[in-house]
Amino acid sequence: MTEKDRNIVRSLAGELAELAALPIQAERIRMWKNSNGLRPNRPMIYMAAAEMPWGEITPHVDDLQCRCENPALRRIEYDMRRKLFIAKHLETDHVVEDTYWIEKKIDGDGFGLDVQEQLIERADSSVASHHYEPVICDMDDIEKIRTPEIVYDEVRTRERAEFIDDLLGDILPVKICGKRTHTYNAWDTAVCWTGVTETLMDLLMRPDFCHAVMRRLTDAVLSRMDQMEALGLLDHPNPRHTVGSGAAGYTDELPQADCDGERYRHKDIWGSSTSQIFSDVSPEMHEEFAVKYEVETLRRCGLTYYGCCEPLHNKMHILAGIPNLRKISISPWCDTTKAVENAARKYVFSHKPSPSVFAAESFSIEEAEADVRRRLECSRGMSCEVIAKDITTCRGEVERLINWTRMAMRVAREFEPGSGT
């Protein structure tokens, strides 16, 4: 590590520390807790950092240019530069934290199956098209789904924490943390082994096979949950920047009152599920083949989030059976009016406006605003978050991202309780 590289990273850490100390961070956390607690303030605005077209915009933004030569420091540098870009240029409710978190290194949490797939990649995008070749084709193959055997690699975790602490611990406190959420995306996981078209056919032609796959996978996930708790690998749910496919999970309802602050349980954290390939599957089949199994894991969690890209407006009645359901994804393909009617205003709506506006030949802020405004008008008075995500391209025009967040925040303020609109 050269002194130059060290100084670069420390300088960026200093900028983050200064931003983290601003009163706006505590105010944002307060607003997230209100929203997630069904105490509506203005709709919260978010842009999913992991789903921004960084490969496209980085060459056009000087603040995103990495200058470290050391590969390990370069990765840290790029992560910090992305956080600073969001904080400085996007008008959102992202919270800049006053801590550098090191997640515990956990091995053995997979299911023992290699995915056979074909990819169509785009060089400057993290998004690729996938075609899955089935590796589970009949009942005998289901035995290939292995029950995880969790191992916490404490040595490697502490080595990384000590390295980062020596680098910038006097600027940003460095802390080790465990898993803060539980995720069980039942068929989004299984379809990688069974194939998309094949699975949709099997729901009709081989329902017993589909049930057997879900039973085996769900039992494996339940075992993994037991092991995570027994090994003390869960952690305090706050701070949590994302829950499910939504936005921040800051809440004053978790952990539970009887949590000792040392050994966290699943009932102290958020859980989430989604089965996106069930978009055009009937509510009855969605409940029978997906929710029935997902709920076995979700019922263990303190609060839950459901959905991603699948339209759920006609499936609210089956989601009502999920204990502690708090947030629901309202995707671009969802009928917002029907979703509001069918949900009886009992949940946080996680609005996902269509990202196609970012990809158009000409960016129309008027079209983007109409989408956001329509959604918020339909769900007026509810707790809402508006999330720009799945942005595969902005045609290299970073201003599209910046202008969208400014517009979304301006519109959101119009829907703040007591605003008079």
Overview of the molecule:
The protein is an alpha/beta fold. The chain has a single domain (3-414), classed as TIM Barrel. 42% of the residues lie in helices and 13% in strands. The protein has a seven-stranded parallel beta sheet, with helices on both faces. Strand 9 (270-273), helix 9 and strand 10 form a beta-alpha-beta unit.
Largest sheet: 7 strands, parallel
Number of helical elements: 14
* Share of β-strand residues: 5-15%
Strand order across the largest sheet:
1-13-12-11-10-9-8
Distance between the termini: 56 Å
Instruction: Kindly provide the radius of gyration, computed on alpha-carbon positions and rounded to a whole number of angstroms.
Output: 22 Å
The number of domains: 1
Helix amount, in percent? 40-55%
What is the succession of H and E elements? Answer: HHEHHEEEEEHEEHHHEHEHEHEHHEH
